[in-house]
Design brief:
Blueprint: E1 4-9, H1 14-25, E2 32-38, H2 44-55, E3 62-63, H3 69-80, E4 85-88, E5 94-95, H4 99-110, E6 115-124, H5 134-139, E7 164-167, H6 168-173, H7 184-195, E8 199-211, H8 227-241, H9 246-265, H10 274-288, H11 298-309, H12 312-322, H13 338-349, E9 353-360, H14 369-381, E10 386-391, E11 405-407, H15 411-419, E12 420-425, E13 440-443, H16 461-467, H17 470-477, E14 482-484, H18 488-497, E15 503-505, H19 514-517, H20 520-530, E16 537-542, H21 558-565, E17 569-573, E18 590-592, H22 599-605, E19 608-611, H23 616-620, E20 627-630, H24 634-641, E21 654-656, H25 659-667, H26 674-687, H27 695-704
Parallel strand pairs: 1-2, 1-4, 2-3, 6-8, 9-10, 9-12, 10-11, 12-13, 13-14, 14-15, 16-17, 16-19, 17-18, 19-20, 20-21
Antiparallel strand pairs: 4-7, 5-8, 6-7
Helix pairs in contact: 1-2, 7-8, 8-9, 8-10, 9-10, 13-15, 14-27, 20-22, 21-25
Length: 732
């Protein structure tokens, strides 16, 4: 059997799970089994785990339903384990290099102890110094293996489950499992500490624990905090059954009630039932208080005495005195301008309008993208909702007749933002917008990420400078309730780039619905509007923005390119939306469509796509038409901008690294041959998972109509979809 079994619950951490698994598989000590526990075979993290299981036989996935929580996932992994010792690692934590070798060496010195406690490092997600809270506790423990009686303060309840290594036979013999759903580490650690006969410590960091930006789950408000009392009662009852000596019982009692008092005094945890929590805790305190127990000094000692006497009014008064009651007014987001600020503040005092939806796309550039597609479907499925589109003054003309709008910065703009129940955006609302309780913010995104986004940009200086404050960006992210994705890759990358507490909706991008619903007549109409001559093959050239360049440069001489490939082609030039206000760049066989409102229309008109690293390739792939990647500066782009995967290894079609190579693939026909089709098919399998023509319907039903997830239309399998026909190409 392997020396170690490493159990890794992975619910909700698909974006960071690979870091945890890599940290284990990269260990110099290789005698282990790795057991990632996923929600289900089709869960986001299961996709990540499947790749590891294929590459390494030591990875043996297990499954536990989300309803069983963290405790259920750990217990599932424990039942599957066959190693001599078990280590529990959270899915967004990592083992430090050399960790398993250090544990093995320590066990060689101490023998197979029941529990080996070790240090861990708590690493702030963004700013601040790492901490090692276990170090002071372990520093006072004896050297070598010892009986728990010799270290009474090492109770197990003050250390998380991933700060110890457990002998599997000990856990099996004592029938130890993680109890309950919340505060399960308290119960498990306490029971293990009570029943262990030989323990030891390793005074070295083994696990690096990431402090989540949105905080620990146990820091959130809710009734689940009453489970802390369940865990305390479980441990104290077991201690009483075993007749635990007073010198061990007192530290155990004190550590448990330190957690209880912290929860009782915390202003944000018990939003209701605080008095009932206090009364139950008081009864538990009196029932299990050790004989001769001396309360600690200071304010904590006062809290102990109030809990012992059951005096909730006095405890509440003390809590109010100790709590900071007023936040600095400057920390609250506010719009500029005194009149606007007052008007917006007044609007925030009025009730939310349950039928008001506010939409915005690309910071007000017009009626486009996912917000527009959701709005159109909502008019069909939820006609009772009032919708207002936010646009900049120069984009008013893009709003279709019959669509209500508000100019950004106007009085109406702030009025609807203050009162809207639903706010839908493909970028972010202004910093000054307040997330009201009861409001619903939907982030639709506007592409699949190849380049790094959000917090991941911080390590790329050029990009970080252009992005601005990452902290302010993430404050905007905290307003999201839902985040939309079009493929599992996006699900994982958004989780990394935008860490917060929002829910991910794997529904597809509504703007891409048209790629499965448009007809040949629609394609012909769009081509006529754009001026594509009959019988000509239209090549859409859509380069992306370069953070390290100033202004728009195509990177390709289009006139020379057209001359080189022959008269059968015309080029539709669509620059990045940053440059849609510039002068026309067309002429001859080059048609500048940068200013055309709908990128979806432009894609429908094109028989093939030429792009560099633009996310338009992921959308266009839904049409199952040829894609050629023109990657003349890939190495510079990758190093300067940062990317999530190597496009050169996973391209959607042919790759050209120079103008000559690009022209050649069109002259010899390889842009549309069988090999290019095979590359495109693999690309579509990975990145066209959820775009089936019904994304807008799913979003409207779930977010705006509040229908339960189980009633939402399922995604149509890729093989069953029929993309819109191309004008000049025949699809096999």
């Amino acid at each position: 059997m392997p020396r170690f079994s490493i159990v890794v619950p992975s619910h909700g951490v698909a974006g960071r799970l690979s870091l945890a698994l890599d940290s284990v598989l990269a260990q110099s000590f290789g005698d282990f089994e790795l057991i990632p526990v996923c929600d289900a075979p089709d869960a986001p993290e299961a996709d990540v785990v499947a790749g590891y299981a294929e590459r390494d036989s030591r990875v043996t996935p297990a499954h536990s339903p989300p309803s069983d929580g963290l405790a259920g996932a750990r217990n599932t992994g424990l039942r599957a384990a066959v190693g001599g010792h078990v280590l529990f690692l959270d899915g967004d934590d990592v083992l430090v290099p050399g960790a398993l070798a250090a544990l093995d060496a320590r066990l060689g010195e101490t023998g197979d102890v029941d529990v080996l406690y070790f240090e861990h490092e708590r690493t702030p997600w963004w700013e601040g110094e790492p901490a090692n809270p276990a170090a002071p506790l372990l520093a006072r423990a004896p050297d070598g293996a010892f009986s728990p009686d010799r270290a009474p303060r090492l109770t197990g309840v003050a250390l998380p489950a991933w700060s110890a290594l457990y002998r599997r036979a000990f856990l099996t013999e004592q029938a130890l499992a993680f109890p309950g759903e919340h505060y399960t580490d308290v119960g498990f650690g306490g029971l293990a500490g009570l029943q262990a006969e030989r323990v030891a410590v390793l005074r070295a960091v083994v696990v690096r624990h990431l402090l989540r930006r949105q905080g620990n789950r146990l820091g959130l408000p809710g009734e689940h905090h009453t489970e802390l009392l369940d865990q305390c009662e479980l441990v104290l009852a077991r201690a009483a059954e075993r007749g635990l000596a007073a010198d061990r019982l007192s530290p155990l009692f004190e550590q448990l009630f330190a957690a209880v008092l912290k929860t009782a005094a915390h202003p944000g945890r018990l939003t209701s039932g605080r008095r009932a929590f206090f009364r139950r805790a008081s009864a538990l305190y009196r029932r299990h208080r050790p004989a001769g127990y001396r309360t600690p000094g200071g304010s904590l000692g006062v809290q102990h005495r109030l809990l012992a006497s059951g005096s909730y009014p006095a405890f509440r008064a003390l809590r109010a005195v100790n709590r900071t009651a007023v936040r600095a007014a400057g920390l609250l987001p506010r719009p500029r301008g005194l009149r606007t600020r007052l008007r917006y503040a007044l609007g925030l005092r009025l009730p939310l309008d349950p039928n008001l939806v506010v939409y915005c796309a690309y910071w007000g550039r017009g009626y486009v993208c996912n917000p527009a597609a959701i709005h159109a479907k909502a008019r069909e499925l939820a006609p009772h909702l009032r919708a207002v589109f936010l646009v900049e003054p120069d984009a008013v003309g893009s709003v279709p007749p019959g669509v209500e709008y508000a100019v950004i910065g106007s009085r109406k703009y702030w009025e609807v933002l203050a009162r809207a129940k639903y706010l839908v955006n493909n970028a972010n609302f202004a910093d000054a917008v307040v997330k009201r309780p009861g409001s619903v913010h939907l982030q639709t995104q506007h592409g699949t990420p190849l380049k790094t986004m959000g917090a991941d940009q911080a390590t790329y200086p050029v990009v970080a400078a252009a992005t601005g404050s990452i902290a302010r960006l993430l404050a905007r992210v905290d307003r999201w309730d839902y985040n939309l994705t079009s493929n599992r890759h996006s699900t994982e990358m958004w989780e990394r780039a935008f860490p917060s507490a929002h829910e991910t909706l794997e529904y597809g991008y509504p703007r891409n619905d048209v790629y499965c619903t448009a007809s040949a007549e629609d394609v012909a109409r769009v081509r006529k509007e754009l001026g594509v001559p009959d019988g000509k093959k239209a090549l859409l050239y859509a380069p992306t923005h370069r953070d390290y360049a100033t202004g728009f440069e195509t990177g390709l001489d289009l006139a020379e390119f057209c001359e080189a490939i022959g008269d059968d082609y015309v080029v539709l030039l669509r620059a990045h939306y940053f440059y849609d206000q510039g002068p026309g760049r067309g002429g001859g066989r080059i048609i500048d469509v940068t200013g055309h409102r709908s990128s979806e229309d432009v894609c429908l008109a094109a028989d093939a796509l030429i792009t560099d690293y633009s996310s338009i390739m992921f959308d266009y792939a839904n049409l199952d038409r040829p894609i050629v990647v023109y990657a003349d500066d890939w190495d510079v782009y990758r190093e300067t901008r940062g990317v999530y995967f190597d496009l050169m290894e996973l391209p959607p079609g042919r790759v050209a690294r120079s103008p000559e190579e690009l022209a050649a693939v069109f002259r010899d026909g390889s842009w549309a041959d069988g090999s290019a089709a095979s590359l495109r098919a693999a690309f579509r399998e990975r990145f066209c998972q959820f775009d089936d023509g019904r994304a807008a319907e799913r979003v409207v039903r779930r977010v705006l109509l509040g229908e339960p997830p189980e009633s939402i239309p399922p995604v149509v399998p890729l093989a069953e979809r029929v993309p819109a026909p191309a004008a000049t190409l025949v699809r096999s």
